[in-house]
Write a structure and sequence with these properties.
By secondary structure, this protein is an alpha+beta fold. The chain has helices at residues 12-21, 47-60, 77-94, 111-114, 119-132; strands spanning 23-26, 30-35, 64-68, 103-108. The protein is globular, with a radius of gyration of 16 Å.
């Protein structure tokens, strides 16, 4: 079960922005990097800049998520893809609860493959990390 296209973080530029400017939250199996949405409530004196946040609001409307899993986790692609599918399924369950506009990167630690971590553990840890980062709707 893949994430909807509107909720996928794809470009290298977006990943770099999240790694450079985002906040970090660490768990035993995962690390979460989260970048807050841009605030469009700043007062603008120039009329040209007032129209740009309106166009950005459609772009900011959905939370975009990327998953990073290196070969340090496992040399076998089968194992890495299985872990990625489990995390995607857990994120799919949490997607309605997330505040719009966030850019998230979930980084998998090598301990996830060593301990034979399963989907409920990923779901529980993701909930904890997202709560710590205040990404859930109503917390931001």
């Amino acid at each position: 079960m893949a994430l909807p296209k509107a909720n996928r973080l794809k470009s290298r530029k977006d990943f770099q922005a999240v790694f450079r400017e985002g906040i970090r939250r660490h768990g035993s199996y995962l690390t979460l990097r989260a970048l807050k949405p841009l605030c469009s409530t700043k007062p603008c004196l120039d009329t040209a800049t007032q129209t740009t946040p309106a166009t950005d609001s459609a772009h900011v409307a959905s939370t975009r998520i990327g998953i990073s899993i290196s070969t340090k986790v496992s040399k076998r692609a089968v194992v890495r893809n299985r872990i990625k599918r489990q995390i995607t399924a857990a994120l799919h369950n949490l997607l309605p609860k997330l505040s719009p506009g966030w850019r998230l990167v979930v980084i998998v630690k090598p301990t996830a493959a060593e301990s034979k971590c399963v989907s409920p553990q990923f779901l529980q840890e993701l909930e904890q990390l997202l709560a710590q980062a205040e990404v859930f709707d109503g917390n931001s």
